[in-house]
UniProtKB/TrEMBL annotation:
Lineage of producing organism: Bacteria, Pseudomonadati, Pseudomonadota, Gammaproteobacteria, Legionellales
Record bears the keyword Metal-binding: no
Signal peptide location: 1-28
Family: Belongs to the glycosyl hydrolase 16 family.
Keywords of the record: Signal
Segments traversing the membrane: none
Record InterPro entries: ConA-like_dom_sf, Glycosyl_Hydrlase_16
PANTHER family xrefs: GLYCOSIDE HYDROLASE FAMILY 16 PROTEIN, GLYCOSYL HYDROLASE-RELATED
The protein's name: NHL repeat protein
Length: 525
């Protein structure tokens, strides 16, 4: 018994010594080594793609057949000039290990590797030193750049989640003279398959001419009356208002002072002869935006009585995403906007907007992301309100695949000397400060600062644009913001003007659809 115990102790000790020795040898003198030929610390944003290269050299006097351990989201480049899937190296022989990093396939950050093993022996493996190993940060969501503490999935591709928060529109949006009627039959739910996640599809479909109020004009003296125009499309839209879901309110109705919302979508066209840019130039107008119940309902439902509230945009409209191409640039920019104003008289409001397609901002379009709308991307928006004794501020920010591209800070501060309220607004695009201005396409900014107003005012004229912004946003924020998602066809909002015909040209892009795979709401610390 003692003899067996003694032999086991010797065997165990030898085994431990052998394992430690092998580990030390492996660490001290790897049998094959890695020398980086490119940067190995990368930030992959959204669906972007990059290539990483290493020279792999066999330092052993024995010939080895080697294979790379698979890494999700990274594929090995095996074209001529690179190491094949199985590569055999003699003493001091080398080959270039090429790695193709695909952001659309990455599931998480990568902080090690690549690992290359002896073929058939998963225990004999080596990888680059710590400083030369892969260090890939994958930014897809606004929560990769903000500290999100709570996530609410309000849509995950399935109708079961959709019905809890959204209502499909059966009717029209009025005010921008669009050419479509929104119908439930133009919305379908597509199950998950090997090529894509589950998603909801909003289809814009050409139609024979039919009378519609979407192309009509609202009577300013009685907004329940809308003149009739002619539509040429049907399409799809949904929104969260009728289910009582407000983006900036929790389930108890309490205001979320710091939060965000993100939607993942892509656009599909049917006409192979059109580019995506031409699709928008010909009138396709996808939009994700927020409105407040403080003002008139976004949509007019068929066979329902319209109930007026306050006039748009006395509560600020916030556009998370619009894809618009007015023909002034070869590519389509990603657009985030606000529209704001105040009640000037019983039938009219002032109006101004800030986005990247107004007359001034066309000069700084290179600062904005270019749309890659045929592929899946995340479009996000965050808000933060801080209330103090003498200062209240809002920070609004827009995101593309988790990266902030523009922000707006609006502040109200009590003067220490006069006690008056002082308003200010600062705007940043891609890290650069930009002007706050009254767009030349709006004759009704109606502030002392803008010195432009074609309205009869029944109220004192505000001093600054910042004051109007602040009050308009506060109306919306306090009453809540609901979410709208729609695919419009044409209309005055798309910014495409043809001087050879009156007004804006009718849409002529054929069929197209808007696909949404998820919508998430976040609370941010």
């Amino acid at each position: 018994m003692k003899k067996c115990y003694f032999m086991n102790k010797i065997f165990g000790g030898l085994l431990t010594f052998f394992s430690i020795s092998m580990a030390m040898a492996s660490t001290a003198s790897p049998l094959w080594t890695f020398v980086p030929l490119t940067d190995t610390t990368l930030t992959i944003i959204g669906n972007s793609k990059q290539t990483v290269k290493y020279t792999v050299t066999n330092q052993s006097k024995r010939t080895h057949s080697l294979v790379m351990t698979p890494i999700p989201g990274i594929s090995q480049i095996t074209s001529p000039g690179y190491c094949p899937n199985v590569f055999t190296l003699g003493y001091k022989q080398s080959c270039i290990l090429g790695l193709y990093v695909d952001g659309s396939e990455l599931k998480s950050n990568i902080v090690s590797g690549p690992q290359v093993c002896q073929r058939g022996n998963g225990l004999q493996c080596y990888q680059p030193s710590e400083e030369n190993s892969l260090n890939i940060k994958n930014i897809q969501s606004l929560c990769d750049t903000n500290l999100c503490t709570e996530k609410l999935s309000i849509f995950s591709g399935e109708q079961s989640t959709f019905d809890n928060y959204f209502t499909i529109v059966n009717g029209y949006h009025v005010g921008t003279q669009e050419y479509q009627e929104y119908l439930p039959k133009n919305i379908t739910f597509i199950p998950k398959n090997t090529e894509s996640p589950a998603f909801i599809k909003l289809s814009a479909i050409p139609s024979a001419d039919f009378p519609c109020i979407g192309r009509g004009y609202v009577d300013p003296n009685n907004r329940a009356i809308v003149s009739t125009g002619t539509c040429t499309y049907t399409s799809g839209a949904f929104y969260s208002y009728r289910k009582g879901f407000y983006v900036n309110k929790d389930s108890q109705g309490k205001t979320i002072n710091h939060g965000g919302i993100e939607i993942r979508l892509r656009i599909e066209k049917e006409d192979p002869n059109l580019t995506m840019d031409q699709l928008y130039q010909k009138g396709a107008w996808p939009a994700v935006w927020m409105m407040s119940p403080y003002i008139d309902d976004t949509f007019r439902f068929n066979s329902e009585t319209f109930i007026p509230k306050n006039l748009w945009p006395s509560a600020m409209e916030i556009d998370i995403l619009e894809l618009i191409n007015g023909g002034w640039t070869a590519t389509t920019p990603i657009i985030g906007s606000i529209h704001y104003g105040y009640l000037a008289n019983e039938t009219a409001t002032s109006w101004n907007y800030i986005n990247n397609i107004g007359d001034y901002d066309r000069q700084i379009l290179p600062l904005y992301p270019v749309a890659d709308s045929s592929n899946w991307h995340n479009y996000g928006f965050t808000w933060e309100r801080k209330d103090g004794v003498s200062l209240t501020s809002y920070v609004l920010s827009w995101y593309y695949d988790g990266i902030k591209y523009t922000s707006l800070t609006i502040t109200r501060k009590k003067s220490e000397t006069t006690g008056n309220m002082i308003f200010s607004a600062e705007r940043e695009v891609n890290g650069e400060q930009q002007l706050i201005w009254c767009t030349s396409s709006s004759p009704r900014c109606c502030t002392v600062e803008s010195n432009r107003c074609n309205l009869v005012l029944n109220v004192p004229m505000p001093l600054t644009e910042a004051e109007v912004m602040f009050d308009s946003l506060t109306h919306g924020f306090d009453n809540g913001y609901y979410l709208n998602v729609n695919l419009a066809a044409g209309g005055e909002g798309i910014g495409v003007y043809d001087p050879s015909i009156p007004g804006f040209p009718p849409p002529s892009f054929g069929r197209a659809n808007m696909q949404i795979s998820h919508i998430n709401r976040f609370v941010i610390k």
